[in-house]
Design a protein that fits this description.
Blueprint lengths: L12 H14 L10 E2 L2 E6 L4 E5 L1 H10 L27 H8 L3 H14 L5 H8 L10
Antiparallel strand pairs: 1-2, 2-3
Helix pairs in contact: 4-5
């Protein structure tokens, strides 16, 4: 349930229909049929094969444009072993501080956390590493 939207899922259509009937008796509601989207996530299903997938592809594309990364190269490894982040990389000069003041670092990391929690657990390690530097991020981070 999200604000005034509800998604009902279950193994038995009989039980789902029974629940919808009970809800309709107590609340004004509209049945919009099978869901294609919920809180920004696309729902993909193949009932014959028993497959249900959630996708945040459009959300990720929006993030790439929002943070001017749409031309970035794709990587198979999210956080290469050659990348070593530390507090020593924190901002030193006024030029670095000025540059980073224009970078919405915390917003970008928070946006990645949302994707991680909803559909992309594979990015958890990389997001965890970069989130350690929210209070004092540098260009390397």
């Amino acid at each position: 349930m999200y604000v005034d939207n509800m998604l009902i899922a279950g193994y038995s259509m009989t039980e789902i229909n029974r629940l919808k009937q009970q809800l309709a008796e107590n609340f004004e509601m509209k049945d919009l049929g099978p869901s294609k989207k919920i809180i920004g996530m696309r729902i993909l299903r193949n009932r014959l094969e028993g497959i249900l997938k959630l996708s945040q592809e459009k959300y990720i594309q929006k993030l790439l444009y929002k943070f001017y990364l749409e031309d970035s190269k794709t990587r198979n490894t999210l956080l290469g072993s050659h990348l070593k982040f530390s507090k020593k990389q924190s901002l030193q000069t006024d030029e670095e501080k000025c540059y980073m003041s224009r970078v919405p670092y915390a917003l970008a990391v928070g946006s990645l956390m949302y994707a991680m929690v909803c559909t992309r657990p594979d990015i958890a390690h990389a997001v965890g590493v970069v989130s350690r530097f929210l209070s004092n991020s540098a260009k390397e981070h």
